[in-house]
């Protein structure tokens, strides 16, 4: 089995891993302009279990959620980069606005997101609709602190500030 898997194999992958006594961890995101913050986040996620599965928003979903200029890196290249990282065991592309269906199929022991999300509905941070599904089957939600100043948006802003002035290189 390759590292990039189809949505249809998620439930089987989760069941097989649980039967073997392996702790499955799942996270998801766009991972556009892969950077050290992503790597540290994925290492921390993988340290929570035995198998790290990463849901990767496809190009159409990324455009819908991030805007018409995104993604900068196409989905196949983002998937290839993710699979090359040591903490990542499997990558699955998806096109929905949330990873709720993926979480329900895989049933990871731990669902991981960045510290800018809210694990509980009344907590500060971006809403996390997947959390209700995870708790419904007895799983855990873990939030990993963000690496300050390390985001794709920060990189884009730095590039624009350094190299663009009225559409010309400076």
> For this structure, what is the CATH class?
Alpha Beta
Order of helices and strands: EHEHEHHEHEHEH
Q: Could you state the CATH homologous superfamily?
A: HUPs
Strand order of the biggest β-sheet: 1-4-3-2-5-6
Annotation field: number of helices: 7
- Domain count, please report it: 1
- The radius of gyration computed from the alpha-carbon positions, rounded to a whole number of angstroms, is 17 Å
Could you say which overall geometry the principal axes of the C-alpha atoms support? globular
What proportion of the residues is helical, as a percent range?
Answer: 25-40%
Task: Identify the CATH architecture.
Answer: 3-Layer(aba) Sandwich
CATH fold description: Rossmann fold
The span between the termini is 47 Å
For the largest beta-sheet, the strand count, sense and barrel status come to: 6 strands, parallel
| SS-derived structural category | alpha/beta
The averaged pLDDT comes out at 91
Supply the key terms:
6-stranded parallel beta sheet, alpha/beta, Rossmann fold, 7 helices, 170 residues, single chain
